[in-house]
Structure formats: structure tokens, C-alpha cells
Amino acid sequence: MTGLARIRLIASDLDHTLLTPAGDLAGRTVHLIRRLGENGVQFAAISGRDTASMRALFKPLLKNVWLASHNGAVISKNGAVLAAHPLTDMQVAGLLTLLATHFSAQPVLPVLCREDGIFVVAPGPASEARLRKFFTQLKVVPRLDPFLTDVMKVTCWTNGPAAPVAAQLRQILPAGLQLAVGEQDAFSITSAQSDKGQALARLALRLGVPRGATLALGDQGNDLTMLKWAGTGVVMADGDPALIAAIGQVAPPNVKHGADQVLAAVLREKMEGTR
């Protein structure tokens, strides 16, 4: 990668990209983000996680970073929500009916993601443990009907590979919704007005950063819009091969702290440019 001195805004996915393989935010990463800010580079975490989970992860940096949660449906900083694009009640109700009637052969577990909690019915012990890894506000409830309002995202966990189910659902997905695969066994549905790429574009506009001065890091299909919108899009070497083929620019793998290596390269060029 060259020309990194021009970068003024970095956006990064979290799981399997910025975070360690164990799902933690490393101390070195915190240090790099702080140093980048001191050298004129703003940082945005753009993730499928909910805002509460992201705030907990970035507790040492809440004044320094922008958070775009629920795949970009909510943008916030330091506790203040700056933009939100929820699904309508009718969209959520219709989607739940669609999932129940069209995918009975391969059950899909819908999870309603709101700012006041993450709601799921009867997830089973293994699924519940996996969900709690990502969502700190998970609430197991008897029915989803009371929670259809202010849903930012519907995450769907599958009993097996998510890609085939997602491909089928795309063919019958109602207008106004969009689908992105973010894990091997999960995909998410948001409003057509919110995805990671649109979140990055909104942040760049708000901050007055030209598209060419943005850099994005990701690893899975739900990062595609963000990586394509950014002036420089970079995929982790151990990310989705299809995403690597679509974007082309590759960072070292997540297991070798590839995101930190990219952040350090930007910081190095920034500091050299000020000498």
C-alpha cells in the first residue's frame, strides 16, 4: 500500500478484522488509534454488533472513535446518537413470517437487534452462548411480537452454512430491505438506507473528508459496500476469498494482527510527512 499519508479517516470492521482472534481489543490497537488521532486521522468502528457491545469494547477510546453499529444503522460518538435508520414494524413482522414459512426445512433463528436490547426466542444453549459473545444485552423472551418497534437489524443464525439460505432469501426479500452475510452461520437484514458503506459515506460527509482520503478494513461479505466505497479498501488475508477477489488489496491475516500493521503503516507515513 502506498500514498497512506493522505488518509484522514479509517473505518474498520471488528470481529476477525480489528479485534484479536479471541474477540478483544488489543492494547497496541488502542495505542495506534490514539496516535492516529493525534496525527489528524479519525477512526470509525463499523460493525454488526450492537452499540452497547461496541461501547464496552471501546471504553478507553469513547471520546476518540465513531461507532457505527448494527451494520451501520446507528452512528454514535461518546454516547450521542447522530443517525439511526430502523426497520419499520411492518417490515420486521413480514420478515419474521417469511423466515418461518419459507425455511422450515433449515430453521433460521431470527434475532431482533434494538438499541435497548437484543431479543431472541428459545435459542438453545449453544446458540445462546454464541450470541452472548457478540451481544452484551441479549434477552431471551417468550415471543418477538412485543419487540417489533425500533429494530435496527435482524440477525439470522442458521443451522448450517448461511450462504445458501441467504441466496434463497435474496430472491424473495421485499423491497426496502437488504441482506449481507457476516459470519459462516449468520446473515443480517437491514433497511436499504443503512449498510456499512452508507455509514462510512455519511461519516466522511459529516467530517468533510474526501472519499479518496478514506481507508476501510474488513473480512466478510457484509464489509463489501464499505470496502468498495472507501478510497482504499483492504481485506484481511484470512478473510472471505470472494471478498479478496472483489477488492484485491490484502492486509496480513487477522491472526498476525494485520489490521494493526495497516494502522501502523498509516501512522508512519503521516509522521514522516510532518517532518
From TrEMBL:
Annotated GO MF terms: hydrolase activity
Bilayer-spanning residue ranges: none
Alphabetic keyword roster: Hydrolase
Keyword Nucleus: no
E.C. designation(s): 3.1.3.-
InterPro entries (alphabetical): HAD-like_sf, HAD-SF_hydro_IIB, HAD_sf
Span of the signal peptide: none
One matching Pfam family: Hydrolase_3
UniProt-recorded name of the protein: HAD family hydrolase
Lineage per the UniProt record: Bacteria, Bacillati, Bacillota, Bacilli, Lactobacillales
